[in-house]
Each structure stands twice: as C-alpha cells, then as structure tokens.
Fold this sequence. Notes:
The chain is α+β, with helices and mostly antiparallel strands. It has one domain: minor pseudopilin epsh fold (3-Layer(bab) Sandwich), CATH 3.55.40. Helix content is 32%, strand content 31%. A five-stranded antiparallel β-sheet has the order 2-5-7-8-9. Strands 4-3-1-6 form a four-stranded antiparallel β-sheet, with helices on one face. The chain starts with 5 loop residues before the first helix and ends in a 9-residue tail after the last strand. The relative contact order is 0.16.
Amino acid sequence: MKGITLIELICALAIISISSLIAAPAFDRMIQQQRVVHSTNRIIGLMQLGRSEALSIGEVMLCDARQGCNDFDHTDLLGLYRTDNAQSPERLLTRLQLPEGVSVRWRRFRGNALIFRPDGRTHYQNGHFFICNSHAARKIIMSWSSHARIEKAEPDQECGQI
C-alpha cells in the first residue's frame, strides 16, 4: 500500500502554514506598492488626456474633484475640467477615482489646479503630484512645458488620510 501517514500530512500542513504566515506581510506590502504604481500611471494618463484635450478644445484644468478647482491639497478623486477664459471650471470632462487608501497631493509654484493652455503647455506652473499610501509613494514632477517625470518617494504621515 502506498500513501501518506497522518504525521506526514500534519508536518506538511505545518510547513505550509508557517510559510504563508511569513509571506503574508510581504505580499500585502507588494499589493500596496502596486496600488501606488497603478495610480501613478493612471494620473499620468489623465494628464496626457488633459494636454490632448487642451490642444483640441482649449484650456483644461486638472483639479481636486471633491473640493473643486479653488483648492487642491489632498484627495483621492481627480477631475479634468474644460474652462472658460477666466480659468474657472466650466464642464467636467472626466474623473479619476484612486484605489482605497491611495491619495494624491498637488504641490506647486502657483495656482490651485494644473492648467493646460491651448498650446498644450501648463500655465507657467512647476510642481509635483505626490501619490502615496501608508507603504509606498511616488512623485510625478511637472515642468511648465508640461513634461512629466516619475520618481520614487517615501510616504509621510498624511499618506492615505483624506
């Protein structure tokens, strides 16, 4: 007769249990890091859409969709708006909801929103988007010519707290 004994089965289950207990925190950290990377890529895509829309329809603003374009500090919901000449939001083009626990902050030289002019450049704005949760962070650094680059960053106390 071939088979396994009860002791062999218990030993195998113990090894599997211990391995999964060791791997679970690392797996959770990896998931949190991937949420930040995914959010960063989606924000870059939203910025590219904003620039494209500005080239075709005129001035576009990237704002906090919860607070509006008058205040952009810390959010998990971004909005892309068509504007009038007075640089106030006119019509919502699209929104981007970030995954649970991930937030974004816009730190800038001037203005409360990222404004794309009809020539595709920003409205003389330098700054960065800080995307983070409690385990990971990334920066999208924006130049006034609307070129963006991504850098790794360290999460801070405000990450994930909205």
